[in-house]
Amino acid sequence: MASMKESVFVLTLTPYRDADLIVNFLSRDNGKLSAVIYRGRTLGKSSSFLYNPGDLIEIEYQVYENREFIRIENTIGIDLLRADQISYDQFVIHSYLIEIITKVSKPALPADEIFELLATISQSTWTEKNRYSLLLWAIWKVIKWGGYQIDFSNCCQCLQSSWKIKANHEPAFRKQTYSLLLETGRLVCGSCLQSSEKAQTVSSAMVKILWLFSRSENHEELYNDFPLNTINDLTQLLNNYMLRCYELKPKSLDILTGFLQK
Ligand SMILES: [Zn+2]
Fold first, then answer.
1. Which of 52, 72, 220, 250 has a CA positioned 20 to 30 A from the CA of residue 166?
2. d(Cα 234, Cα 71) in Å, to the nearest integer?
3. 228 Cα–ligand 1 center, Å
4. 215 C-alpha to ligand 1 centroid (Å)
């Protein structure tokens, strides 16, 4: 029985029996880990587990062969979310992302990219403007992590490119409205779309955002350059697509939708 030590994010806490807790963690190398914390709900004891979803902690644990659960020996808080320091909006977005990540992460499946995603989200300074682009960027990363990338390079029917690089090395985007085919993650241009197809509208500004993500992999340039409603519409569209790809029905979706429609 080997003892291991690593940093993990707390994902979920579920009360179990009278005083115990079942806790899910996200490990960079080992994906989702689960543990029963005996007497974890007893206050004021050395067994008390006082962390919250989203907290980054270090755990020492043992792995049993052929067991689904690990045995926690020790925990130390590293980066804890302070409820009094985050806004309600940040709380809504964070809770939603934690729920999504809990559902898409799997035991024994390394989760580097979504671990990094949680680290970035936790360390970001949230502002009135950037929280929407942070959410959009996070959803984009989760889609990519599952291998469900959207192919926005061309119309899947006439094959006309949606963008090209001009002589000055800047991209030029085709003036066209597309639709995202939810079944395939491909775009079809307005000239080719048949009304019977199940699709959602993608403007050329949204294509540009997807292009920026694919080039720079960060959200920083978005919130200065794009109107909030474009970012918001794209967030809803990618969110629908993500939920469909992974077949998810998150409990916190209604709260997030309310937040996006504000
Ligand atoms: Zn076309």
1. 220
2. 42
3. 28
4. 24
- Interior CA angle at 13 toward 22 and 125, to 5°? 145
Ligand 1 midpoint to CA 187 (Å): 8
With a cut of 70, say whether residue 180 has pLDDT above it.
yes
Q: How confident is the model at residue 246 (pLDDT cuts 50, 70, 90)?
A: very high
Distance from the alpha carbon of residue 48 to the mean position of ligand 1, in angstroms: 59
Domain ranges across the chain: 1-82, 86-262
Query: What's the CA-to-centroid distance between 227 and ligand 1, angstroms?
Result: 26
Q: Is the pLDDT of residue 152 over 80?
A: yes
Give pLDDT, residue 223. Answer: 73
At 120, list the tokens: 């970035």
On the question of pLDDT at 65 being above 70, the answer is yes
Measured in angstroms, how far is the CA atom of residue 171 from the centroid of ligand 1? 19
Q: Which pTM value belongs to this model?
A: 0.91
Q: How far apart are alpha carbons 156 and 180 in whole angstroms?
A: 10
Fold exhibited by the domain 1-82 = OB fold (Dihydrolipoamide Acetyltransferase, E2P) (2.40.50)
